[in-house]
Each structure stands twice: as structure tokens, then as C-alpha cells.
């Protein structure tokens, strides 16, 4: 006679489909505990705690347990089920397949291990059919309530996994009605929202998919004050772009094809010989082809290279990478090769979390990603050969380099083909000017045209500026313009005697002096702006003018060819023009303060959106005339920080040079969450080293502690653990001296994390424990929850499992209450670890599965590896070697995709004996 037990609904036993009467609720609770721990010994103390923990204990608890066992044996023994008394407790012997909870778990594990989507879907469907309602229906104990909540979340995660598989199988239309109803009942579930959007899109309803995204975005903002997660935002963007890969699979991993070329020069003319030389250099060989285009500033090197690249796009189907190396930028230092490589990795689709910490490893990853691909790498405005060499691909590719210097090292060591641009000859210069102004206008005044071209000295930049000036007054004779230019030429020196540009400053001044007064003021002010370009809002604060007026003035400067709008609302100058603008600008501390405050206060607003629970910083009010931006959501804040990142680094340098020390470290504070999310610890360390120096200038002891604390955190991210501990130790000492209790708590919390990285759990616990106590004393509930998890994890690592479980369960309750999903995932993983090491392997798999689902919802694929690795250990402990292998292979695939060589090597060792 076979007895089947139900836990996923009413707790009951059935023989041949007919229920057996168990009795009152307390007895069913005891049976539920024994069945959950089927074939395991459950101690009397555990039974008492799990059945009576939140209600009055019986006068004799052990006698009550013994009475319950007598009653259960009376019901179950005739059906062939035994409950055996052991030295420490009781054991119910049963085939796990006869208990719906354990059968559910087994089917889910088999489904996850299946290599075929059809087989996986069938197994997960069979598992879900076992559910008849809420687990342990009608029973109300604290332990069962907690387990019920976990199992319901587990079922939800399995349903989501099943839908992913069914969508991959193309069942969009069949799923759509149930998906819509399910999403309506779970409006804050972003993974479910993504599945519904995907199904709608593949059913020919992209507008409905986009509308659902907006509904979810608004609800998240209204109810939680957050933005959609990165995976959901990316799906939204791909639907907007009608990404063809969306019609193939749910989570496609298509190779990213970067298209970074600057725009094709609109009025390019001449240079036929040089274009032909580049054609010849390209050839058909499978080798790295390097063409180094040299020449004076303003000679048209970038225009030539961009024109040639656009002509040959068909030769580079795998993408085009572009970077302005700023080799001669008057506003700062040339771009480091490391920064350029990081930009290329972003363009190639490498997630920030997958970027190696070591710069050499980043370079190796870049070369690996472009190896074997037909790509163009355009390195514009290089300072010298040393800046270029780290950016060269390791295999066949075409590299275009422009520089004002002769790159002899590149020619000698790497076989580059040198192409030096000379001034345009008379015919080419005439054709370029005619392209701008029309041949008829030049033919009407041939002698004047000749003098104009003489003043331009054959430089395409100068000709374009002259043409812009002449184009603003089409009715003026060219002779009137030449008279103005002649007067200015008599008054000005050469811009750079080394480059022999005798008349270029005269050309610039001619256009500058012809500007209306306010446009001239804006032009000069732009010479003070930090960074490589400037957006309209920043320009408005720089000049203390309304945005509409600044836009009008920038339009006038654009018409005069003195600025270019390279992206909507973003403006930049040729570096020679910018140098001239700097000459025209008077020392204006107020303008500098306004532009610095604009960036600091706007970045602060972005940070408050990215991490609203972080304790805010008192940064004062912006300077008069400065109008910072605000942000509606996380996407807008992140987009602004990304677009302005290089400018923000330049702002910190400018602020330090001007003695604005508070702004220096305030700016570092505003970028901290952005750095952490991108995994950009290289820049974070540099920014915080500057921040520490600035705080020391101010004499503000709390700022000195805070900057050292954040520098220590950044050093930890970069693998500089010894330096990190030194800075954090200094921060803790200062915080103790000045009575900064929150600072002490954060310092201990971070030091615990670093000792964890160093695999010293005892030292970590020595810091995690006081951190938790201080967070509790301060009433910082979210940090208190993180403290519980941190303490629990290190206790678990030290074998203190019961204490660890108590701390982690407290953290889980708080995480769910505050909707801290990252903390919830971390805590579930810790509880899974505890369950594994206390012999509760089925429970461990449930908890790990929930953690994994949350990590995938959040897009934290970097953290999936550790959880998958632990899942593999649990399967191996159960003797499920095939499932252990499946979990470890998933972890290995993630490591390889994220270029984590050390982690991949460790997981290969786990797989080698299997």
C-alpha cells in the first residue's frame, strides 16, 4: 500500500487517492515538520520550537511531542509508514517521491539540469502541477509561515523560469493571456514585466510592449522610488530599436557591433592622392594595417580619415571603434591608453562587472574581443607612439591614427604606413572655398579670392572659418571681408611659431571680432570650460545666462564655425580654436565657480536618485547664476553621468587647481555609486586620492575620515587590500577621535568586507559585530539589515550555524520589508550555505534557487557564479553528480563570458574529477 503525502496545499495523507484523517491542527503541524525533514532525524527541541514557538508551550513539551507521535503512528502505521524513535528525536521514513514537496524539488532540479528546452519545460510543468494551493494551508506557526513564504517565492521563480523556456520555444501567443493576468497581479515584478513585453513584441504588438514598460516604470517610481532594473531597461531600448535578435531568443547574446565613427565630413573636397594612398595601404592581407596620418593642426587629418573610413564601411562589417586621444588638448592631459581601452570595452558590450581590474588584463581582453573580426580602429589626435601601441589589436585589423607629430616609433616597430598631410595646393583650396560659397561668387572677385586663400595658408580649418564668416553676409563683397582680415593680420603674432601658422590667429580673430557682443562673451567663456565638450545646461551656468539665450549664442558660434554641435545639445571646439578662446577669456573666478558648482550639484542630484537611502551630504547651495539639473529617474541620472564622466574628472582637476577643496571631495562622493555599479575602481581610486588631499586642506576631520573610508573601499575594489586597510584604519581612528558614530560603523563594515576578501573570517567578524551594534544604536535599519547578513555570513563560515541562521533570518525579514532585493539575494545565499552545512540539502537548493532568481532579475550576473558554485557542492553532497556538473558548467560559462580567469580555473578544478 502506497501512501502519498501533500504539503503543497492542505497537509494530508492519501491512500489510493482517498485522504486519511490526521486530526487537529497541532498534529498536522507535527506531521508537516517530519515530512519536510523526511528521512532525517528531527530532535524533540526542534519539534517543540517549530510547532509551539509562537504560542504557549504545553506544561510538559516532551510529553506533548510523545503524545503526537503516538497519535500519528496510530494513523500511519496501518498504511505502512513508520515513525522511528532515535536517541535525539524522531524520523519518518518515506520515499521522497511520495511527498509532493520533495517530488516538486526533484522535478525542478531535473528541469534545470536538462540540456533540452522541450524536456526542461515538461519537467517544470509537471512540478508546478503538484501545487494545490498555499503550502501547509490552515496551519499557522512561525516556522511554517517562514517556510511557506520561501516556498511560494520558489514556485514563483520556477514559473518565471518555465516562461523563459516557453518563450525560447516560440510560444508567445499561447502564453500571452496568462502572462497578462499574472503581470497584473504582480505589477512590481520586473522579470515578469520583461517576459510580457517580449511576448507582446513577438505577437506584433510593440506599442503595447512599450506602453507596459511605461506603466511599470511609473509604478516603480511611485511606490518604491526606484527605476527599472538594467535588464528591463535594455529590453525596452532593444524594442525601441526593433532589434532583430529579439525575434530569436529571450536573452540573446549577440556580438555587439560598435559604430563609433564621427560623422562624414559634409563638404569634404580634394585629397585624392592621400585617399588613394590609404586605399593602397589597406590591401587584402590578413595583417594589422596601420596608417599614421600626420600634419599640422587644422590640416584636416580627422576629416581625411573619417572620409576614407565612410567610403570603406563595407570592409569593416564587424564594427568601427573611435577615440579622440586628446593628444594636444589645451584643457588637460592626453587620454591614457587605459581610459581608451575601457571605452572600447564598453563599446564592445563588456559589462562593467566583467572588466578585469588589472590594466594589462583589460588590454588583453580588448585584443581578444577584436581578434578575428573585420574591424576598423580609429585613433584620433594621438600624442605619440607610446600612447598608441597599447591600443593596437593583436590580429588582423585596420588601424587609422592621426597625430600632429611624426609617429616614427610606430613606423619602425609596427610597420605603420606614414602619410603626412601638407597644406592644400591652390586648386584644392580654391575648390574647398567654392564648395562653401559657390564658384560664381569667387569668380566675381578673383583677386580678392586669391588674397583670402593666401590668408588661410592652405589650412582646411581656416578656409572653413573664413567661408562661415562670408556665408553669414552673402550680399557683402568679399573685398570688405579681406579688408577686415588684413587689419587684424597686422596686429597679431603667430599662433605657434613652431607650426608656422602665421595667419591662423588672424583668421580666428577676424571671426571673433565679427561676433555680436554676447556671442563673443560666450565664446571666450567656453575657453574656461573643463573637459572635452560642454552641454547646454553647463554652458548656461558657466555664462550665468538663460539657457534659451545661450542656445541662440551657440547657434551663432556654430554658424561661424567656431564651435561644432557633435551631438544634440553638446558642443565642442577644435583644440586650436579653444586655445584661442582661452586667450580671449579674462581670469573669471566667478565663472569657474559657477561651472564647477553646476557639475557638483547636478552629480549630487544624480547620486540621490541612484542611491536614495544613502545618508545625504551637506554640499551647500550653488553659486549665484548656477542652475543645476534634477533627474526624474535612475535612467536619466545614469545617462547624464555617463555622458559627462570625462568632464567630471576634468572638473575635479580644475577645482583642485582653483583651491575649491570642498568641491573636490564632494564630487568624489557624488560619483561613488556610479563607480561601484560600473566596477570602475581605477578612476575611483584616483578621484578619492584627490579627495583625501582636498579634505586634508579643509581641516574638516569628518571629511578626512569619510574620504579615507571611501578611498579604502575603492582600493579594495582594485585589489589593493593592504592600502585599503591602512586608509580604513585611519578613517576609524579619526571617527573615534571626533565622535563620528556613523563613520565608525561604516569603517568597521568596510573593514569586515576586506578581511572577507583576505579569507580571514575571524578578523572580519571582529569588525562586522561592532558595525551591526552601531547601526542598531543609530536606528539605521537598512544598514542594520546588511550588518545582520554580514555577521551571519562570517559566523556561518566559522561553523557557528545556529547563531548565523538567527542573524540571517532577521536580515531576510528586514530586506523584504524594505524591498532591498540585492540584500535579500545575498541573505538567501547565506541561508542556503547554512542549510547545506547543517545537512538540510533540499532546503539549501530552494534557498539558492531563490537567490539565483533574484540575481538574474537584478542583472547581477557577476554574482551568479558564487551561488551556482555552491549549488554544485550541494548536488554533489546529495550524490547528484550530473546536476553538480550542470551547475558548475553554468558558472564556468559565466566566468568565461565575464573574462574571470582565476574563477574559471577554480571551477575547472571542480569539474575535472567528474
UniProtKB/TrEMBL annotation:
GO biological process: phosphorelay signal transduction system; regulation of DNA-templated transcription
Domain OmpR/PhoB-type, residue spans: 17-92
Keyword annotations from UniProtKB, A to Z: DNA-binding, Transcription, Transcription regulation
Record InterPro entries: AfsR-DnrI-RedD_regulator, BTAD, OmpR/PhoB-type_DNA-bd, P-loop_NTPase, Sig_transdc_resp-reg_C-effctor, TPR-like_helical_dom_sf, TPR_rpt, WH-like_DNA-bd_sf
A Pfam family the protein falls into: BTAD
SUPFAM superfamilies noted in UniProt: C-terminal effector domain of the bipartite response regulators (SSF46894), P-loop containing nucleoside triphosphate hydrolases (SSF52540), TPR-like (SSF48452)
GO molecular function: ADP binding; DNA binding
Gene3D superfamilies: P-loop containing nucleotide triphosphate hydrolases, Tetratricopeptide repeat domain, Winged helix-like DNA-binding domain superfamily/Winged helix DNA-binding domain
Domain Bacterial transcriptional activator: 99-240
SMART domains found in the cross-reference section: BTAD, TPR, Trans_reg_C
Classification via PANTHER family: TRANSCRIPTIONAL REGULATOR REDD, TRANSCRIPTIONAL REGULATOR REDD-RELATED
Family indicated by similarity: Belongs to the AfsR/DnrI/RedD regulatory family.
Protein's UniProt name: DNA-binding transcriptional activator of the SARP family
Species, as recorded: Lentzea waywayandensis
